[in-house]
Amino acid sequence: MKKVCILIPVYNEEQVLPLLEKRLLAVCNPLPYRFRFLMVNDGSTDQSLSILKHMRKRDPRFCFLSLSRNFGKEAAVLAGMDYFHEDALILMDADLQDPPELIPTLLKEWESGYDDVYAVRASRQGEGCLKRATAHLYYRILKKLSPIPIQQDTGDFRLLDRRCVLALRRLREQGRCTKSLFSWIGYSKKAVPFDRPQRAAGKTKWKYGALCNLAVDGITSLSTFPLRFAAFAGIFLFFLSALLLVLGCLPLAWPGGITPLMLLAGALILFLFGMQFLFLGILGEYVGRVSNETKRRPPYLTDCYNERKEENEEMDPSAASDSVMPPAAHRSPHRRTMVR
Ligand code: UDP
Ligand code: MG
Question: Residue 203: nearest ligand to its CA?
């Protein structure tokens, strides 16, 4: 029987977990697969962890991996992938916005040979116009800037074949944007449309600020086009100012005397300052990314896996020069015996 891991990041989801358990079991129990429900507790401060413990007591197929604090959804997903050892992985949110009822369709497409079966939002309920419009715009910008094809209007809800997960966990960059990484790894992809319902209970964890950060991470991790754009704009501005200089030297009679010229000069100065700050910001964004990478911190630290307390071993110094550096815990035989 094939083994399937269902990976769910959980951050303060006490209200929705009991409902999630019920719906997951109703869908998965009749299916001919051996399931493991891996819940990654991303430093919840409510009763989520104790609910997860009770779920495990009721059904040992529920496993929980607790991180040492809140590291964010992207890190929580990577942590779950590091603890994956099945034939396929299904990634979904805890709040039932990714309906478990779609799981049989995802599995069916996987069985027909697709490696990455992703759910596409045909509609989004309960999201304001602003969120819908900005999400729409973001995907289009990402698509334009990205050198690789990006799947539009998809979240993280998807089924990944084992080899996709193994590829994804080799990508251990800081400021992860899983959405662009799914596209980057390639493999055969299949879209499954679904209507995205509202959150079943609780509140969204995303504030607009965090979403903006994620959007910038997504763009800067995928493409260096903004940097090149800054250089092109610099060249354009150089020619523009040369043209103005030539015009200024010509003996032309400017209507209205000096005042319009002063206004023009003021506007030009403001524009140039604005451009400078914008491009400094773009440069800073990439320098920041480089600086974060050079720290080589692990993307997350674990506290416990089920009843077992986890040790986050120190990095192996010999691996420090590798471009791909899985955490030492990932390589250690101690961890391997524990996960299997
Ligand atoms: N989540 C997480 N860590 C965080 C924020 C969110 O693990 O720091 C989880 C959350 O519990 C949920 C999923 O990520 O399972 C999506 O979060 P949410 O529903 O708040 O995002 P939205 O659907 O509003 O984009
Ligand atoms: Mg949600």
Answer: 1
End-to-end CA separation in angstroms for the chain: 16
pLDDT beyond 50 at 207: yes
Specify the pairing of strand 34-41 against strand 88-91.
unpaired
Mutate which of 39, 45, 176, 205 to test ligand 1's pocket (most atoms within 8 Å of Cβ)? 205
pLDDT band, very low/low/confident/very high, at 165 (cuts 50, 70, 90): very high
What are the residues facing 9 on neighbouring strands?
40
Nearest-5° angle of CA 224, CA 228, CA 230?
115
**Token pair in block for residue 178:** 């899983």
Interatomic CA distance for residues 91 and 196, integer angstroms: 15
> How far is residue 173 from each of residues 24, 169, 219, 331, measured CA to CA in Å?
32, 10, 14, 17
- Residue 281 dihedral angles phi and psi, to the nearest 5°: -60, -45
Per-residue pLDDT tens for 11-58? 999 999 999 999 999 999 999 999 999 999 999 999 999 999 999 999
Q: For residue 216, what pLDDT band results from cuts at 50, 70 and 90?
A: confident
The rounded distance, in Å, linking the Cα atoms of 171 and 77 is 12
* For residues 234-242, average pLDDT: 79
**Pocket-forming residues, ligand 1, beta carbon under 6 Å:** 9-11, 13, 42, 70, 72-73, 76, 93-95, 97, 204-206
Distance CA 6, CA 218 (A): 25
Nearest to 329, CA basis, from 319, 309, 315? 315
The string of DSSP codes covering 70-108 is: ---HHHHHHHHHHT--SSEEEE--TTSSS-GGGHHHHHH
- In angstroms, the CA 167 to CA 84 distance is 12
Angstrom distance (rounded) from CA 253 to CA 208: 51
Contact of 118 with 189, CB cutoff 8 Å: yes
Place of tokens 């596209």: 183
User: Hey, whose CA ends up nearest to atom 2 of ligand 1?
Assistant: 73
Task: Take atom 16 of ligand 1 and give the residue whose Cα is closest.
Answer: 93
